[in-house]
Write a structure and sequence with these properties.
3 domains, 8-stranded parallel barrel, TIM Barrel, single chain, 14% helix, Jelly Rolls, 44 strands
Length: 734
């Protein structure tokens, strides 16, 4: 096992504290000019107020004490922190950070100090002193004159690069002394193409950091240093990186707060905002996690929360870059526009739109990959093309610098006003960075779709193949699935039923969602407002051993105005990411992990708003299911239009064959939903398990499954058990 920073095997050493309050040192002031190839910068009087200086008077670097002028932990601290900053240029050979080799000091080599832009690298033949490709400022930390208290460590808490109009960025690399210089892995990349790098990274005596150009030339603007306590003191989010070569490593955290949930999280780069949760624990002050070898650099942190962290549901990705380019204005950049324009080439005024996605995770079994874009008008033909170049940036791309367009992935003869889907399954099967181009043959002007800067940002969805195969069995439940779920979970998990239907979610006139009654508020102002224990309880329903594979929210009920409220809200706000509906249903997806929303409209029956609502749900990664008992015209239109928008979005129809729908049969309704058989449902108040099994058996050739109405009545005095009715449904439909 290889552990960077000489970290003790078996213990997770991270930096606690709030790193945004670290001592911030400014490199943009001082006199301009070249100051030699090497400069020592020293931080003294570490118990505060800290003073900063260098051996060269002209390069004095003042402390910005408006941020903070003392270290976080100062007990027992004495001495100085010294950092040597060395300019490495590329004249003889480029510096290669991955092997920590190459580069050098050629004629004229110097650190270039340029107020107000920061420190860079100068050599003969260069027109400016920026850090350019193949050059670096190498920081070597000298802690030999520093004395620390018990369990204290120095942290590199932040780095800021020169940012000229949002177009400059840099890379951060760190030396791994366990690998010989000249060998692959001698340098580890901490961040790529960033303006600022957040810490904290533990620093030991002799550690080296290389600051290099990213996609553009850059300069060092500021450094943040701090002295912190080793170990976890939540809620700090501190970072450790290790590189286990084989086997596994045990990471341990101490000083945890037992009253909260503590989650170990992992990522390949701290510049990546997508942290994956490894494991969660609560009720302990010391925790251990076994982490298998990955063969790559791994970054870990612990995050705390007063509520159970929700599971990752679905695989949804927003573009990291999107922009259009215009032939008529070949040097103009439109990366900040709220639209993605397209226009055909016949007029020599062609417009092409580019999108780039970083896919950091894929399901084990991919069913389909869908690109979803929102068009503000109809377009006569739109093709999605592969683009092999993935290093372009939305803030820089122009017609003159645009990447080449590759092979056609998918083409639609027409694009409608609103949400549209494109199947990109042939393009994406593994994690990676993917670029695509949108091209049209329509020569009209102002053909626009919404960009990520708009309310309707594009979305890439990777759909996993369902493990709920064969004929499904479901049960609707109200109160016993909310306040009483903990006591009923074991019964449901052992029932054999594959789907749990949470009945019922209700939308008020403000777009807030309630559960079952007006007193159970679930969402408010885009935040979860329900029972803090419910997210963990719902996740537990699917944890093995359990027959439950899917959880749905049934929306509305007889006498409820939810769908009328939805129609009004869509007319007033739309369904963009700033709308009340979008925010509320994103909460149900992100916090509660719902797989689908079940439409139980029993009075409003407005096709247009229902379809638009369904499209919004698709952008959030939901499946849509229907629960009719009458009005075949309405339900048929909703299904047909959503199927045309995204085939398979509506993947189930639960047919009410009880109460007001007691006259319904599967055969009579299947023709309303071409390609999809319905699943009939029966009520426990109307049939015994034996009668339920007999009825479903007579319908089994026309049914995709079956469901039970309702759990509440089984638990409130019915002589038969949940398992009795579950067996009746499962045996009957099969």
């Amino acid at each position: 096992m290889k552990v960077l920073h000489k970290i003790m095997v078996g213990s997770l050493i991270c930096m606690a504290g709030f790193v945004h309050a670290a001592v911030l040192t400014d490199f943009v002031s001082g006199e301009g000019g070249n100051v030699g190839s090497s400069v020592d910068v020293t931080w003294s009087n570490l118990t505060g107020p800290v003073t900063v200086g260098s051996l060269i008077t002209a390069t004095a670097v003042p402390l910005i004490d408006s941020v903070k002028n003392t270290m976080t932990e100062t007990d027992g601290v004495s001495g100085d922190i010294k950092v040597n900053i060395l300019a490495v240029d590329d004249l003889s050979s480029a510096f290669v950070p991955s092997t920590w080799s190459g580069g050098g000091q050629s004629a004229g080599n110097a650190i270039n100090v340029d107020s107000p832009y920061g420190w860079g690298v100068r050599r003969d033949g260069r027109v400016n002193g920026h850090i350019q490709t193949g050059e670096a400022l190498i920081l070597t930390f000298d802690l030999s004159a520093l004395s620390l208290g018990a369990d204290q460590a120095v942290a590199l808490a932040g780095i800021t690069f020169y940012d000229k109009d949002g177009t400059s960025n840099g890379d951060v690399w760190m030396r791994d002394f366990d690998v010989a210089a000249g060998s692959s892995g001698a340098g580890i990349q901490l961040a790529n193409n960033v303006v600022s790098y957040p810490g904290a990274v533990p620093i030991r005596d002799g550690d080296q950091i290389a600051l290099m150009a990213g996609a553009t030339d850059t300069r060092l603007v500021s450094l943040e240093l701090d002295i912190l306590v080793e170990g976890f003191e939540l809620p700090a989010q501190a970072v450790l990186f290790i590189e286990p070569a084989s086997g596994s490593v045990t990471l341990s955290a101490t000083n945890l707060t037992s009253e909260v949930y503590n989650t170990l999280q992992w990522t390949e780069s701290v510049a990546n905002t997508n942290w994956a949760s490894v494991s969660t624990t609560t009720g302990v002050t010391v925790a251990e996690w076994m982490v298998p070898a990955s063969g790559a650099t791994s970054f870990f942190r612990v995050e705390s929360s007063p509520t159970f962290p929700p599971p990752k549901v679905g695989y949804l990705y927003d573009p990291i870059d999107d922009a259009y380019v215009e032939q008529q204005n070949p040097s103009m950049n439109f990366g900040g526009a709220t639209s993605l324009g397209v226009r055909g080439s016949a007029t020599s005024q062609e417009m092409v739109s580019y999108l780039k996605f970083v896919v950091d995770d894929v399901p084990g079994s991919i069913d389909e990959v869908l690109l979803k874009v929102y068009s503000t008008e109809t377009i006569a033909g739109l093709g999605v093309y592969e683009v092999s170049d993935t290093v372009w940036n939305e803030d820089q791309i122009t017609w003159g610098s645009r990447p080449s367009v590759g092979a056609l992935i998918v083409n639609k003869p027409s694009v409608s006003d609103g949400w549209n889907t494109f199947d990109l399954s042939s393009l994406i099967s593994t994690p990676g960075t993917y670029s695509i181009a949108l091209v049209t043959t329509d020569d009209r002007t102002s053909l626009n779709m919404s960009s990520k800067e708009s309310m309707y940002n594009p979305v890439l969805e990777l759909c996993s193949a369902s493990d709920d195969v064969g004929k499904y069995s479901a049960i609707f439940g109200g109160g016993p699935l909310y306040g009483g779920l903990e006591g009923n979970a074991a019964t449901i998990k052992a029932s054999g039923l594959s789907t749990v239907m949470l009945w019922a979610a209700k939308v008020n006139g403000s777009g807030e969602v309630f559960y079952n009654s007006g007193s159970n508020l679930l969402t408010s102002n885009g935040e979860y407002a329900g029972d803090s224990a419910w997210p963990e309880q719902l996740l537990n329903l699917k944890k093995a051993p359990s027959s439950v594979k899917r959880i749905e929210f049934s929306l509305s009920a007889w006498g409820d105005a939810s769908f009328a409220n939805i129609e009004t809200l869509i007319a007033a706000e739309g369904t963009g990411e700033d709308s009340s509906l979008y925010k509320s249903f994103k909460v149900l997806r992100d916090v509660l992990g719902a797989d689908a929303i079940n439409f139980d409209d029993e009075s409003n029956y407005d096709v247009a708003s229902t379809v638009e609502f369904g499209k919004m749900l698709s952008v959030l990664g939901y499946k849509v299911t229907l629960c009719p008992y009458r009005d075949t015209t309405y339900w048929g239109a909703v299904y047909t239009q959503l199927e045309a928008y995204q085939p398979g979005l509506v993947d189930r129809v639960y047919l009410q064959c009880y109460a007001g729908g007691s006259y319904n049969t599967p055969l009579a309704w299947n023709s309303i939903f071409p390609g999809l058989n319905v699943a009939p449902g029966l009520s426990v108040s109307e049939k015994t398990p034996a009668e339920m099994k007999s009825t479903l058996d007579s319908w089994k050739d026309d049914s995709a499954g079956g469901f039970i109405w309702i759990l509440d009545e089984i638990l409130s005095g019915n002589v038969n058990s949940v398992k009795d009715y579950a067996d009746a449904v499962i045996d009957g439909v099969n």
